[in-house]
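Design review, sub-item: ligand-bound model
Attendees: FS, YL, KQ
YL presented the inputs for the inosinic acid complex:
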Amino acid sequence: MPEFIPLISEQEIQTRIKEIGNEIAMDYKEKDLVLVGILKGSFIFLSDLTRHISIDHEIDFMGASSYEGTSTTGQIVFTKQPDLELKNRDILLVEDIVDTGRTLLKIIEFVNLLNPRSVKICSLINKKERRQVHIDVAYSCFSLEKGFIVGYGLDYDERYRNLPAIYDLKL
Ligand code: IMP
Ligand code: MG
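KQ shared the predicted structure:
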């Protein structure tokens, strides 16, 4: 039986998202903010975050999946591209967790081709131990050295996204 060790409570998550939302609202006051959620893991985080950003902004989504091939390099496949025009706009990519950083690197490269004015990252969790590429996480709610976590949008094999808090999963 998998074991779920409580790591971050619902209350802690909500308090932190409120802080980050206020910070984003101040930083983007004079800008043209578009939140771009990376599916699927960010869907719950994004829905809470948007309600704590008091300035006008728009929302879009991108989908990315990583597949491990026969080589050790993970390949990223886009499953959804943004619908909105992103040219000359200020893009904030919203992720559930940055691990190796490879997924976000590919997404940033793709979004840059659309000629936005700026691209920054907002991640619920910044997991540092396995980072392989440099990613500047401008807004990070929580930092984690290692471990595999689930809940609040984060899955293990597509399950446990519905848990309202974040747990360390011990298989
Ligand atoms: P990266 O390309 O290695 O940074 O992978 C990021 C993606 O891997 C995230 O968007 C998650 O879908 C998944 N991931 C990485 N670590 C975890 C974790 O601890 N729990 C759940 N999903 C994770
Ligand atoms: Mg996932």
